Amino acid sequence: VEVCSFTDQLPGKCGNDGSNKCVNAMQKKALLPEVKVRCACFDHPTVILGNYKFSAWKTLFVILREWKTLRKYIDKSLCRSKTTSTSILQSSTSFYLSHSICSFAFSLSRDSRNTKRFVSNSPLKIMAKTNGVIPTIDLGEVSDKILNQKIREASERWGCFRVINHGVPLSLMSDMKKTVMDLFERPYEVKVRNTDVLLGSGYRAPNEINPYYEALGLYDMASPQAVNTFCDQLEASADQREIMVKYAKAIDGLAKDLARRLAESYGLAETNFFKGWPSQFRINKYHFQPEAVGKLGVQLHTDSGFLTILQDDENVGGLEAMDHSSGTFFPISPLPNTLAINLGDMATIWSNGRLCNVKHRVQCNEATKRFSIASFLLGPMDTDLEPPSEFVDAEHPRMYKAISHDGVRNIRMTAKLHDGEALKLITYEE
Ligand SMILES: O=C(O)CCC(=O)C(=O)O
Ligand SMILES: [Fe+2]
Q1: What is the pTM of this model?
Q2: Largest CA distance in the chain
Q3: Which ligand is nearest to the CA of 362?
Q4: Whose C-alpha in 99, 274, 306, 308 is 20 to 30 A from the C-alpha of 157?
Q5: Is the distance from the beta carbon of residue 303 to the nearest atom of ligand 1 less than 6 Å?
Q6: Tens of pLDDT along 342-401?
Q7: How many CB atoms within 10 Å of residue 247?
């Protein structure tokens, strides 16, 4: 059953026609019986077009007016979305439209005077026109209950969201960015001193397969000793060392706060379930050359850990995530002073399939340098992760075999499954 879980600035307004199917499915989805969920579109059917909302009738009108062009576009297979012409027809009668088609229809309505140019655009350019759909969550929200609910909804629906008022000082973020840019300027002989602690945790030089990507990293960023070793290896100055230690502490605190809020949103008895879990830190530099435009800087993948905090480049876009319900990609456009949050494989295992391990990739859109700073709250290394009992009942049987973060990483590496498919190998048979 398709359940309304649109969580953008207009919670609940998914464009469903307020049918009982949607409301019932939402009720069923609520974990605790006393939690009453009601889809806002029950009363006000609304369709989201990119960042705009329209009445269902207006959307239907746009779709019908632009139907010919829309068909042509689909027939040309330019749209990589799983949505077919038939389902669009169904959608227009039931007023339920996937966000990709909504953005598309909106672009059409804006570009109807110049449809020729529009049709010849590549999907990449079309995507770049939309502002992205993931929610931006204000962590300064006064009501813990509302905030936790927003985090939960975004984590289930998209597996990613942006946060503002996140408590990481903006001056620290910009100092960190400068530090990162400076560390990449070290000579090759210095950068290779950043050796692996875990497989792949240290320096990665650009190579033949991916000449545009370079990374430095450190395992266990909550440990000041590990941060100091990293700084020693890279001959960081005293100031840079102080910035790194402060940044690691602030980000680690935020990651754990978000994890705790997720547990609270489900009413779990144990909200400090992540105690003792290590975090990994990775700084990325993309050397995008003119010939890289349209190519990938990082392949499609899920993050293996529980939750990732990403300080992405505030000027250069390219990060794209996949909407798991439609299979379409949407850009996570830069938004200065915010942080992007991704849920990973361990979150899906922990939540017994409720939280979405979002598939994402980095695409080169322009020939320029791009920097990003990723911090991963991983998962238990030596013990196996099991979902809390509250996540398992007759309607939600255990989905995954208990496994440590190390176990998940091993499967991903040996089976070469980096885009979340590794979870299928630990799924219980029906
Ligand atoms: O560079 C980015 O924006 C994303 C990097 C990423 O997905 C990762 O390091 O796992
Ligand atoms: Fe990632």
Answers
A1: 0.72
A2: 64
A3: 1
A4: 274
A5: yes
A6: 999 999 999 999 999 999 999 999 999 999 999 999 999 999 999 999 999 999 999 999
A7: 25
CA gap 3, 86 in Å, rounded: 20
Nearest atom of ligand 1 to the alpha carbon of 319: 3
Most ligand 1 atoms within 8 A of CB, residue of 216, 303, 310 to mutate: 310
373 lines ligand 1 (CB under 6 A): no
Regarding the beta carbon of 360 and ligand 1, being less than 6 Å apart is answered yes
Q: What is the pLDDT of residue 419?
A: 87
Interface pTM, i.e. ipTM: 0.99
Q: What is the SS3 string spanning 160-176?
A: EEEEECCCCCHHHHHHH
Q: How far is the CA of 362 from the centre of ligand 1 (A)?
A: 7
Distance 427 CA to ligand 1 centre (A): 26
User: Higher model confidence: residue 153 or residue 2?
Assistant: 153
| Helix H or strand E encompassing 310 | strand 307-311
**What's residue 56's pLDDT?**
57
- Name the percent of the chain lying above pLDDT 70: 69
The residue among 416 and 352 whose pLDDT is bigger is 352
Instruction: With CA atoms as reference, report the closest residue to 323 among 134, 105, 50, 97.
Output: 134
Average pLDDT score, the chain: 79
- Residue 140: count other Cβ atoms within 10 Å of its Cβ: 11
Which residue, by CA, sits nearest to atom 10 of ligand 1? 303
Q: In terms of residues, how long is the chain?
A: 430
CA of 301 relative to ligand 2 center, distance in Å? 6
Question: DSSP characters for 173-194?
Answer: HHHHHHHHHHHTTS-HHHHTTS
Whether pLDDT at 112 is above 80: no
The predicted pLDDT at position 124 comes to 31
Ligand 1 geometric centre to CA of 312 (Å)? 8
Which token pair is 397?
């049987």
* 345 pocket-lining for ligand 1 (C-beta < 6 Å): no
d(CA 429, CA 379): 24
Residue 367 in 3-state DSSP?
Answer: coil
Q: To the nearest 5 percent, what fractions of the chain are helix, strand and coil? A: 40, 15, 45
- Ligand 1 pocket member 241 (CB < 6 A): no
Contact 283, 182 (CB under 8 A): no
pLDDT band at 84 (very low <50, low <70, confident <90, very high): very low
The answer to whether 283 and 217 have CB atoms below 8 angstroms apart is yes
